[in-house]
Amino acid sequence: MAPARPASAPIRRPPRAEVTAARLVGVAAVALGLWTPARAEVAASLSLQSDDRLRGVSVSDRRPVLSLNLADDFAGGLYAGGSAIAQQTPGGQADRLGHTEYVGFAARGPNGLAWDVGLDNQDLRVMTAQPVRLRYAEAYAGVSKDDLSARIYYSPNYLRPGLSVVYAEVNKTLRPSDDWRLSGHLGAFQPLGGNSGTTVRRSRYDLRFDVVRLYRRAEFDLGWAMASPPAAPEPHRSHAGLVAGVTLAF
User: Fold this and answer.
1) Cα(75)–Cα(83) distance, rounded to whole angstroms?
2) What pLDDT sits at residue 101?
3) Is 23 helix (H, G, I), strand (E, B) or coil?
4) Residue 87: CA count within 13 A, CB half-sphere
C-alpha cells in the first residue's frame, strides 16, 4: 500500500519518514523584511472520524479513528504539531494506529501571498492480512493566497530506504458564511525511483470534498474521498466513500 493524507485546509499540515520528531527541528528560512511572521497561537483538539483517509486511501479500513491533535504557532513564523491516533480493530476493540508530527516555517507578504516550508513524519500500523507499517518522512514547500493553496512533498525513503516519491496537491476553500466551509482537494502521487519489487509502481490521483459546519467549539464534517488507480495490496481501501467526523477544540 502506498497512500498519503489529504490537506483540505490552507497550507499547514503534512505526512512521514525515517527521522524522529526531534530531528525535524532542522527547518530554517530567511524572511527578508517584506515578510511578516504569523501570530503565536496554541491549539489542541480531539477528533472522531468514521474513516482515516491518507490521500484518498483508507488506512483504518473504513473503521472509526480517534485522534488527539496538538499544534503551536510560535512567534517568528515557526510552527509545529502532531497527532496521536487510535483505531477500532475488526473485533471492535481500541488499538493504536500511530502518530504524526510536523514542523515548519510560514510567512506572509504584503500582497497577501503566503509561503511555508517544513518537514513531517508519520508512523502508522495498517491492519491488513499481513499488518503493514507506513513509516516515512517528507520535506515540503507550499504557497497560498486567500482560500487557495498548493503544496509539494518529497520523500527520499518512502516506506523503505531508496524509494523516492513526490506528492503534489491543490486545495480550495469556500466560506458561504462564518459557520460553514466547503473545501476541495486534488492530489497526485508519483514514484520516482527505487520501487523495483514493491507495490509502489504507478502514479495515483486522489480527490476529496468536504462540507464543514462550525458550532461553538465543535466542527462537524461530512466528506467524500477516493483514489485512482487503487493502491495495492487491498484495492477496496481506495474506493470512493463518505467520511463523517466531529472535532472538538479545547
Assistant:
1) 22
2) 97
3) helix
4) 20
Check if the beta carbon of residue 4 is closer than 8 Å to that of residue 17.
no
C-alpha cell at 109: 507578504
Residue 206: C-alpha distances to residues 113, 170, 229 (Å) = 26, 11, 9
CA dihedral 44→50→55→57, nearest 10 degrees, is 150
- Residues of the chain under the 50 pLDDT cut: 1-38
Q: pTM of the full predicted structure?
A: 0.82
Identify the CA nearest to 80 among candidates 135, 42, 134.
Answer: 42
Which domains are seen in the chain, by residue range? Answer: 22-249 (2.40.160.40)
Whole-angstrom distance, CA of residue 140 vs CA of residue 29: 13
In this structure, are residues 239 and 230 in contact, taking their beta carbons and an 8 Å threshold? yes
Specify the 3-state DSSP secondary structure of 52: coil
Rounded Cα gap, residues 93 and 52, in angstroms: 16
Are 116 and 14 in contact by the 8 Å Cβ rule? The answer is no
- In whole angstroms, give the CA distance from residue 201 to residue 197: 9
pLDDT recorded at residue 45? 97
Question: What's the confidence (pLDDT) of residue 233?
Answer: 82
pLDDT of residue 175: 97
- Nearest residue to 190 (alpha-carbon basis) of 170, 151, 164: 164
Q: What is the pLDDT of residue 17?
A: 36
Cell numbers describing residue 184: 476541495
The pLDDT score that the predictor gives to residue 133 is 86
Does residue 55 contact residue 206 with C-beta atoms inside 8 Å? yes
- What is the CB-side half-sphere exposure of residue 62 using CA atoms within 13 A? 12
Q: What local confidence, expressed as pLDDT, does residue 200 receive?
A: 87
